[in-house]
Structure formats: structure tokens, C-alpha cells
Amino acid sequence: MAPLRWGIASTGRISNDFCAALSALPAENHKIVAVAARKLDDAKKFAEKFEISKFYEGYENLTNDEEVDIVYIGTLNHTHLDIGLMLLDGNKHILCEKPLTLNLKQTTKLLDRAKEKNLLCVEAIWSRFFPSYQYLKKRIDAGDLGEIVEVDVSFGFDWTGEGSERVTQKALGGGTVLDLGVYTIQVSLFALRDEPTSITATGKLNDDEVDVETEVEINFAKGGIAKIRTSCLKMLENKAVVKGTKGSMTLHQVWCPTEVTDIDGTKKEFPLPKHRLGEFNYPNSVGLSYEAEEIRKCINAGLTECDVVTQKESLTIARIQDEIRRQIGVVYDADK
Length: 336
Fold this sequence. Notes:
- The chain is α/β, with parallel strands linked by helices.
- It contains 11 helices and 14 strands.
- It has helices at 13-22, 40-49, 60-64, 80-89, 104-117, 131-141, 165-168, 176-179, 181-192, 288-300, 311-328; strands at residues 4-9, 30-37, 54-57, 70-73, 93-97, 121-124, 148-156, 196-205, 211-220, 225-231, 239-244, 248-252, 259-261, 267-269.
- Strands 8-9-10-7-11-12-13-14 form an 8-stranded mixed beta sheet, covered by helices on one side. A 6-stranded parallel beta sheet has the order 3-2-1-4-5-6, with helices on both faces.
- The chain is globular and about 55 Å long.
């Protein structure tokens, strides 16, 4: 079977890490055939680094490249909708970095277009594909934790230096609700497997009127509760404690965990694979290979949805994010 042929939209830090992670997978299964950036020189340098044969100025060129099967979108939050729609209209599957878009209205539009075109459109919640998450799922499925009643999760660190603009500026779709909160919301949905019924949120905004800290409580239909904290001002515990009626488990480094505290209190390790090309900007980024391989399997099976991150869940996440932002007073131009 021919390899899945990737196009890469953006040459930023996360796109670097995604391409480096792809080098951990067999070349007969995955091939990067093209990269596009706003500036041709950036695309050229990136292509040389990752041994990519084609490089483009402008993302529309990926749409026109008949050798590209799927595009990984690693651009800034506020560009996801327009780039995603353009690629779908060019009959490309897309794996788009979280948040999928800025709000529920945009997410609905993007996913509806994917359905119309009969194409895969997946929000790149890479955490879900880690073996640690799959191990937690297995334990929940087996009833080992009993009924899941609470998820206590935090994600925060000092994000005030270089590169902080994407989380601190409103024009770029900034704020911890979208960049960090997506991780806390998704793990809550992953464990509780229920629909939210009420949300209570407080937050601290910066001078640009985007949130730099939040505290959120989500109540669910069956009585479960998620307690969430985010911050880009200070380091938090960055773990998710999943509590059931029979016991609890903890995902350490909740966004990319290689270690789990099991129900009996022992630590379970899940070593990361080795890669061949490039260096990483973020912790455990070689784990991006887990989602890439699952996407390949979905496309080879002719699926237009990935059951690890469903479209329904992406819509639920967007709905929760909208409500949190409404309560704490973060409004993007796209909301108006």
C-alpha cells in the first residue's frame, strides 16, 4: 500500500515537531511531499531540513498539489477556518491543530464542509492517541474504576517570553481557554463520557482582554463533575486525576503523558518511540506520531471520521469554550 502523502501548512514550531515525529514512522507508510509557508524562504529552509521535495509560498499551493492526500495545519488559531475550508474545497483531508477554530459557529462550518466533501477533518488532540490515554480508556471500559464521578485537571505554565503572542493577543485568537483549556476539557470528556449540563467559570484577563488564567467547573448529566484550571502566568500541576467509585488514576503531564499512576498507586511507564530527523521544541513531541499513524489507518479504511477524536466531541469542546469565554468576557471579532 502506498504511503500517506502529507502536506504541511506552516513552518512554525509545532509543524517542526510534527515533521520530526513523522520520521519515527516507517517511510513506506508516511511521506511528506510538500510544505507551504507565507514566505518562500521559510518553506525552502524547512524543506531542506526535513528532506521535503516541494516547497511553496502560500497555502493555496497545497490545494493544487495532486500528490498531497492530507494537510497538517499548524498555523495560528485565527487562520484555521479559512485555510481549512480552502483545503477541503481542494479535496484534501485535514488534520488541524487545536483549537479546531475560534468558536462553535466556525467549527460547525468547517465540519459541515468536510461532510459535504466526504473528507476527513480531525482536530489534532494528540493527547488522546498516547498509549497512556488508551490504557486509561481500557481501565474505564473494564469497570476497574467503577463509575467516573470527577476529573480534576490543571494545565498552566509561565508563557510570558518569546512566542507568547499567540496566547496573549486577541487578534491571534489568544487566551488559555483555547490553547490550554482544550486539553483540560477534552480529558474531562474522555473520562466522564457525558454531556455537560452547566458551566461555572471565572477568569483573569490581560490588557488585550484575553484570559491568562481561568477556573472552571463543569457539571454533567449523570452527576459527574470536572474541575479545571488554566494559566499562562505560572506553572500548575499539569495532571489529570480521574476519580471513580472504585478508585482513581492520574495522567501526569496531561497533554502528553508517558506516565500514569494506576489504580493501585503504582507508576506505569509508556516509553516514546525514536525519531530520525530534526529536533523538538516541545516536550514528548515525538508522540505526535501516534495521531499521524491513526489518521493513516482511518484514511486507508475509507473513514471520514476518527473515533479517537470525533466531530461531535470537537463541537462539544467548542461549545464549552464559547460558554467559558462568554462568562469571563473574552470576545473575538469572529464572535460578533
